[in-house]
Every structure is written in C-alpha cells, then in structure tokens.
Amino acid sequence: MTEGDYLGEIEDWRAGLERSLRAERSWLSLVGLQWIRPGMNRLGAGSDCDIVLPAGSAPERVGVLILEGERLVLQVQDGVEALLRGAPLTLHAVRPDNVPEPDVIDVGRLSLMVIARANRWGLRVWDRESPRRRSFPGRDWFPVRPDYLVQAEVEPASGEALEVVNTLGDIERSEIPGWIRFELQGVACTLAPFSMDEDGVFLAFADRTNGISTYPGGRFLHARPVGHGRLRLDFNRAYNPPCAFTQFASCPLPPVGNHLPVEIVVGERYRSGFQA
C-alpha cells in the first residue's frame, strides 16, 4: 500500500465515523437514560410520569413499563402510536440490548431501547430532532503518523481475569482472551482486549495524553489480524468512546493494565464542552 492509499483509507474511515455520529439514532441524538424500577413505571412527557420524556417530544402519557423479575412489558396507552419495526404495539414484552436483535420502539420523534447493566434495566432515549446533531462541529483528529502503525504479537492467556469498570461504576469480570504485545517509541507495551475473534480485537487503552489533548477516560481501538498470530495495530484509528459525546452512555474504562507508558499523539483528540 502506498502512503497515499494509506492516508485515503484513514480519511474514508474517519468520514464513516462522522456520518454515524450524526445519524438519527446516534450518540449526539441520545437525550436520556433513566432506570426502570420493579413494578409499574408510567412513561411519557408528562411531569407526573415515573420516566419523564423530553417535553414536547412525545405524548404526555405513552403507557406503562412493567418490570417483573427478568421480564419487562410495555403497555401502550390507548390512542398512542408506538411502533416496533414499523408495526404498531399495544402490549409487548421488550427485548433489551443484552440479547440478539433488541427492540427499538419509535414514539413520535423519539426512539426507545431498554438496556441491561449489571442488575439494572434502563431506558435509553434518542431524539432525531436533537439540535446537537447540527451544532456539533465535528470530530477532531491529530495528523496521521505512519510510525504509530505497528505489528503486534498475540499470545494466548492462561485463564487470567480481566476486571472492567464502566462509567456507571459497574464492575464486570471476564476471562482475558489473549495478550497483545508490541513495541512503540522503543517501549515494550502490553494490552488486554475486551474481545478477540477471527475479525480482530476490540480494546480500550489509556496513555499520557488523556485529560490533556485526548479524552480523560481513554480511547477505543479495533485491530485487524494479519495472520500467523499477528495484528495490525494502528493508533491513527484510536477514537473516543461514546461517553465523550453524551453523559447518557455507559462506557467501559481501560483496565489498569491497559495504561500505556507513552504519549499516543495520533487518532482522535477531545473537544470538551460537547458532552450533554
């Protein structure tokens, strides 16, 4: 690949991230996350509801969310149009985001999805008319530097556990799928990914730029396999987690061992003041 091809590939990838961030259901259009308590939860834009939707975005009373154990049912108020994949709902057992094909329910200009985090269930709310989709000035990037594209070795792990804390304070423990070892700026580095399969790895890392020129909570990175137990680790593709754009996301933080002892002055910078 020529240098021009490489730079073009990076630019195309960045443009794709920008388009996804401005989509109708994106982190910029996310306007709420409220927790669902056991029993009956009145849902709507009315101030007397248990889960209050943004004023003027939906009917005063959309219906009732009923949580009993691991089952959540939405009972829609008579006369209210709530759609699932274009079909109207009246009474529906809602599929949360921890199962395949979770439900996204459209009410007015809003989209609603139930999320499962630790032992809690919450309602995530998007507003396709959110002004932040138009006012956001765009992602901010460091210049591309090919010296931050490295080849990494993947080594199997032997049953070690990875402890991951998210921005809500929840802690999850899982088995480390493998170790990623590489050298950067003459320094030996090791990372533990969240996931690893034939398509590559996904991980979060921190470095010495966090809180200065990059997001304080670290950045995300996907890496592609190149065969024979090796990865193409390109820090020019490091990008901010959803929590850099909204307070209503729940992002995993880099594990303690994923704090790199170097400055990663490539990838996405951080624009403070645009988290809402």
Share of helix, binned: under 10%
State Rg.
21 Å
Secondary-structure-based class equals: mainly beta
User: Mean pLDDT across all residues, rounded?
Assistant: 94
Beta content comes to 35-45%
Q: How far apart lie the N and C ends?
A: 40 Å
- Low-pLDDT ranges: none
Give a quick account of the main beta sheet: strands, pairing sense, barrel closure: 7 strands, antiparallel
How many structural domains are formed by the residues?
2
Q: Which strand order does the major sheet show? A: 16-15-12-20-19-18-17
DSSP helical segment count? 2
Tell the overall outline: globular
Number of strands: 20
Helix and strand run: HEEEEEEEEEEEHEEEEEEEEE
Oligomer designation: single chain
Please give a handful of descriptors for the protein shown.
Tumour Suppressor Smad4; mainly beta; 7-stranded antiparallel sheet; single chain; 6-stranded antiparallel sheet; 276 residues; 2 helices
Blueprint of the fold:
Layout (H helix, E strand, L loop, with lengths): L2 H19 L8 E7 L2 E6 L6 E2 L10 E6 L2 E6 L5 E3 L2 E2 L2 E3 L11 E3 L2 E8 L2 E8 L4 H4 L13 E7 L5 E5 L5 E5 L3 E6 L2 E5 L3 E3 L2 E6 L13 E9 L2 E5 L42
Characterise the protein shown here:
The chain is mainly beta and 276 residues long. It has two domains: 30-130, Tumour Suppressor Smad4; 137-258, no CATH class. 8% of the residues lie in helices and 38% in strands. It is built from two helices and 20 strands. The chain has helices at residues 3-21, 132-135; strands spanning 30-36, 39-44, 51-52, 63-68, 71-76, 82-84, 87-88, 91-93, 105-107, 110-117, 120-127, 149-155, 161-165, 171-175, 179-184, 187-191, 195-197, 200-205, 219-227, 230-234. It has a seven-stranded antiparallel β-sheet with strand order 16-15-12-20-19-18-17, with no helix packed on it. A hairpin with a 2-residue loop joins β4 (63-68) and β5. The longest helix has 19 residues, at 3-21. The two termini are 40 Å apart. The model has no long low-confidence stretch (mean pLDDT 94).
